[in-house]
Design goal:
63% helix; 182 residues
Length: 182
């Protein structure tokens, strides 16, 4: 059940209206998460800035989607799972890859270690120890990748759950842009 309404630029606070206008001008529309975030100009600006910055992560698109699927499965955001599943398939992942990612694992041990770390950072960040970071380094992950993995998922998944946002019905999902893009 939707808890926060989407705002059109005309109904949004001034700064949010400006940001929504820019998004609509570039993409033709703004997704339900972004239009619901428009209630808070600070949140919307912060999300957009962080989202743009996270596009420069060193993870491949496929691995980034695997991490997002693992985290969004844990968070329980159906809207995010829908968007990341579509993005993962578009990035060349198989249905098996998507299924494993939603379980927080991969057939690749190196990727599985990174995904398990990402889920732990989300679920129990205080449990991360020096040994965990050392293990990631042993798998060949750089400190930049270890940092990049934290990403946007907590913000987007949590916001969508608070706002009560759900995926579009199947017949509409091919017509609409993803709710958010990382």
């Amino acid at each position: 059940m939707r808890r926060l309404d989407s705002l059109d630029p005309a109904d949004a606070p001034a700064k949010s209206a400006e940001l929504l206008g820019e998004i609509i001008g570039r993409h033709g529309s703004a997704g339900p998460m972004v239009t619901a975030m428009a209630h808070s100009p600070a949140l919307l600006q912060g999300y957009l800035d962080l989202s743009r910055a996270m596009k420069r992560v060193k993870l491949s698109q496929a691995l980034s989607e695997k991490v997002s699927l693992a985290l969004q499965e844990w968070i329980g955001c159906a809207l995010c799972l829908d968007a990341h599943t579509r993005a993962a398939l578009k990035a060349g992942l198989s249905e098996t890859d998507v299924s494993l990612a939603r379980q927080g694992t991969s057939t690749d041990q190196r990727e599985a270690a990174l995904m398990a770390y990402a889920v732990r950072v989300l679920a129990e960040p205080a449990s991360i120890r020096d040994e965990d970071v050392a293990e990631l380094r042993e798998h060949g992950w750089s400190d930049r990748i270890i940092a990049d993995t934290v990403g946007l998922n907590l913000l987007t998944g949590s916001f969508n759950l608070v706002a009560g946002l759900e995926p579009a019905p199947a017949e509409q999902s091919t017509k609409e842009k993803p709710a958010h893009v990382h």
